[in-house]
Design brief:
This protein has a domain of about 200 residues: Up-down Bundle (Growth Hormone, Chain: A). Helices cover about 75% and strands about 0% of the residues. With about 375 residues, the chain is mostly helical. Helix 2 runs antiparallel to helix 3 and helix 4 packs antiparallel against helix 8. The longest helix has about 35 residues. This is Putative sugar transporter. It is found in: Cell membrane. One of its GO terms (molecular function) is transmembrane transporter activity.
Amino acid sequence: MLALLYFSSDFPAAMTWNLFYQFYACFCANCAGIIYGITIGWASPSIPLLQSDTSPLLSGPITEEEGSWINSIMCVGGLVGTIFFGWMGDYFGRKWSLYLVALPQIASYLLILIALDVEYLYVSRFLGGFGGGGVFVLVPLFVTEIAEDSIRGTLGACLILIVNFGILVGLAICGYLDFFVAPLIPITILIVFLILFQFLPETPQYLLMRKRKTEAEVSFRFYRGYRKATVEMPDKYLREFANLQKIYDFSSLNTEDHKVSSKDFATKSTRIAIIISFTLIVLACFCGTFTLINYAADIFHDAGSSFSPNIAAIIVGGIQVVGSCGSYVLVDRAGRRILLMGSALATGIFHTVMGVYVLLVAKGH
């Protein structure tokens, strides 16, 4: 991750202690993102195995419909997890809410370890999606709140790259390791996450929001590399913390006057921003990447590829990582608009190709 961050336009010229703790916290938080990626990548090599005559389940091979449910129920868990952990992050803090995300993820892989029939996998995938919903809510929130302005954009944008890397890892380990051995790797990563993450303090913003100013200052000093209270922070950090205090002091005043109302959405600029944001989110959700990754091995098998289905799926995962790296490096150089238009155009072209292929297969060609 650091190697890629080096090419970002706002990467610091030298790694100092005031930045080290921010990168360390970002690395720890994104361990949960790697696990969610592995959970997504698990399906492509595992579903064909579960449907085969050599299925590792004692109940025997699963049906095509059961395989479809194994893939789909993860999204249901993600929907529930997003709502639950979004609420939890505001009431119990970013740190401990993110810490608890690991619990359903560990339970998910433990269920795979002891799976006897497809019902175990249904619950496992629901819990994996539930934890994944928490990852997408809490990791960006935690990282952006502990990072200083100069590297906030870089660290905050890591999650998608990390998840895509996790997908690649999941495709590789689940494609070539025994069905009951592969879960040990994400469980080990999660245990490391639980050990490392517990030593990090809560974010300064959350503590200020809860009016715990003394703890907020201790947390802020930690993430800026000035853990000892006797050491004076530079002026830029003193100003940064003072500005944070002003923001949360202001927000606590006249709360009734500052509640969100329909009038806040009445201006033209706000409506345009909402439409653009909604359109981008819809495009991202309906681009088909999740489905293609889940069925990558099946697609290449049915297409009669000269590659083995698992190798072909790993290649697809690798292309995703390369694409994420390219976007990550170019986003501040080429601009968001050009990259969004280019990726949308390319997605449309390749979806057309995929649609033609599916149509020809359906017609028996």
